[in-house]
Amino acid sequence: MLADAPPPPGHGFPPGTGRPPGPWPVVAAALAGGWTVALAALLQVVGWSVEQLQVAAGWDRWGWLWPVLSLVTALLAGLPAVLLALLPRSAGVRAAGRGWLSAGLALIALGSLRALPPVHHELYLAVLAATAALLAALATRLPAPTTATRHPGPPWQLGPHPHPQPGPDPQLTPDRQAGHGPRGVAGGAGRPRAVTLLAVAAGLALLVPWVWFGALGGLLETVLAGLAATALGVLAGALLGDRFWSPFTGDGPPRAARTVLVGGLVAGIVLLLLVAGTGQSGAQLPALLYVPPLGFVLGACQVAARRAGAPAGAAPVRWLVGLAVFGPLALTDPEEISILLATTRDVPYWVAVATGVGLAVAVVLAIGYGVLLARPHGRAPGRLVAASSAAVLLLTVGVVEVTAGRPGLYGERLLVVLREQADLSDLPAGTPGRAGRAARTAEVHRRLVATAERTQGALRRDLTRLRLDPTPYYLVNAIETDGGPAVRAWLSTRPEVARVLVSQRLRPLPAPAPASRGDQPAPTGPEWNIRMLGADRVWSELGVTGTGVVIGSSDSGVDGTHPALAAGFRGGDDSWYDPWDHTRAPTDTGGHGTHTTGSAVGRDGIGVAPGAQWVGCVNLDRNLGSPARYLDCLQFMLAPFPAGGDPFTDGRPDRAPDVLTNSWGCPPVEGCDPGALRPATAALEAAGILVVAAAGNTGPDCGSIVDPPAPYPDVLTVGAVGRDRTVTEFSSRGPAAGGAGKPDLVAPGAGILSAMPGGGYATLDGTSMATPQVAGVVALMWSANPALVGDLARTRGILRDTAQPAGPADLSCGPAAASTGAGLVDAFAAVRAARP
């Protein structure tokens, strides 16, 4: 009797009933499956959202978040799965329960690995590969389910009880039982079977959008991503092997629709739970959408393999799942899947595009493979056709990578900070004014370079011999170099090394992000913030506009052609530096740097010191930076050098700007620790260059001024107030580390109109907007009294003594100074006090 033929009355029914089991086990399985899908997807999104909120708010990362979420997911999804696995009557329902329970337990182990900081991505991938391989080994050693009496039933019954090991189908001919199926689907010994090649082709098709829209990291990172993807494929194969599919296929010719639709649905939920634990926070979200439909593809492969004479085995699962998860693991940086980049067509946008294309490809594969391989009396493609399909898709991946993709490796680098830093404690006092400042700057530069040259030689030679491309720095005695966890461990053991930081490197985009443009008209007079500070009175009543003072801007860049900024650019071959893209003229696509520079020196009523000049450096690319790029710009500001020049030998300390405006911070996610830039700001202070920095936008929490350089005592830290002279809700609060009172001052930072790339204007909020206005006030003071140039202590004293009271929004941080510092800067009073 054929397996699909109806049994005679009473045959195989539960004793004493005369009828098959009812539909309730299937209903329970459907409810449990829906619950599992909703729960897993929701908690993954919640976990990522919480981490993004922490990044945006500047909070410390909760290392326990992902272990707890993974455990909660497994517990809440595992309870119904256990109940399903214990149901006595429906083998298919029990198989679903066992599969979901096993995947939920794997999720606990895999998801908990996200406790590792995202900045250590290579270490995470290595641990992920090892954990998945261990879980796969354990899964293959699980005992097979016990054999039970077969109970064929109506269509709602998911399948017969499984056998411990699927045996040969009694309806197959001897040659097909031996594995020699029609047209080579089963394949012979030592050759890949056609069904495996079809799975490879499907996996490569899913890889195409990631190759198109993504980019690889470093060599080690890519290798580890491949190992992790392979281990995850092996784990999926252990959970979705022949033993899993047996209840859905039967002992005779497979019931194709049930195998593809029901078995594929159950397998898809298993895959959902597996990929929920795959990848750092953010990288798992795309796979949640496009990997589960592959369960139907695997069901179709089972149909084709069994029609050919043997079960499919684990190989199709391994190849398909491994290739599917390799895309987001290797071709995206999880740290860039961030809300900080979600406002433009940056990495989150392109990840969403790749996910959408991947989902469409997965759906087409599910339908196409189902129709092609599981249609009644259908014949699957032979080995030659399957191999040709896989070869064509492999070639497509290569062509897309070379043409539309971004070939090459874009891994993170390391910043090696040496123990010995230059001794600047006994600098001569020098004469006041610009001449004395120039002499101190030259001496600081000489000592810094000498210390770096003396202490870095052996390490630089070793790194060069290992072809790790070292880049030396002197402002902080440090070296940036290639290298992964092994190189980092080796460097940490060297006696001359204090610590090793990860220096982030952004991966390229498929297309340049569009430049931010302004949508507001040009101002018709001094803006409200200029009037609040009294800068317009300084121009009109005191005749001071900042002439003779140079402000250095380290930011996303500056649009040097903007009408409000073009005339203020100092010019020459040493007034612009772009360590990211090596542009030769001032440019800006992000808009942030153009806006901040405009608030400092912009003409037409937007800048505090419109008569001052500016020089620029790009330390932010797409709103992200790294310790090395921040250091590049600070070093350039101490001793500017021509484009393509060597900072050690070509630096010109006599061309250093007077005041630096810095509307940025370097958080741990970018690789900085609290002391990463401390020697840099100390050296600039010793050189008589005033560093003005934004407090940050992580208020109103107390103690939220944490990201370098804002907490440093030698930095003039600026918070923000609104039109009502009250500290804004977003402005970060003190005290800083060690109880230091921060911010030092506040300035207008809400609803600030300033320049944007392309000649337009826009209104922005943030302590970023307040900071350049304080730099502009210093420029007015030093322009009014050049003898103050380089006299940082006296300049700070005047700013504090002339500041006006500002209402704190929240006094829970202690005294008012903890929230507002000395108060709201008063340009008119400060310049009058600064005049000889």
TrEMBL record:
Keywords: Hydrolase, Membrane, Protease, Serine protease, Transmembrane, Transmembrane helix. SUPFAM superfamilies: Subtilisin-like. The active site is at D555 (charge relay system), H592 (charge relay system), S768 (charge relay system). The keyword RNA-binding does not apply. Residues 546-806 form the Peptidase S8/S53 domain. Signal peptide: none annotated. InterPro entries: Peptidase_S8/S53_dom, Peptidase_S8/S53_dom_sf, Peptidase_S8/S53_subtilisin, Peptidase_S8_Ser-AS, Peptidase_S8_subtilisin-rel. Residues 152-171 have a biased composition (Pro residues). One of its GO terms (biological process) is proteolysis. One of its GO terms (molecular function) is serine-type endopeptidase activity. PROSITE patterns: SUBTILASE, SUBTILASE_SER. Residues 146-188 are annotated as: Disordered. The chain crosses the membrane at residues 24-44, 64-87, 99-117, 123-142, 194-213, 219-240, 260-279, 285-305, 349-372, 384-404. Belongs to the peptidase S8 family. PANTHER family: CELL WALL-ASSOCIATED PROTEASE, SUBTILISIN-RELATED. This is Subtilase family protein. It comes from Micromonospora rifamycinica.
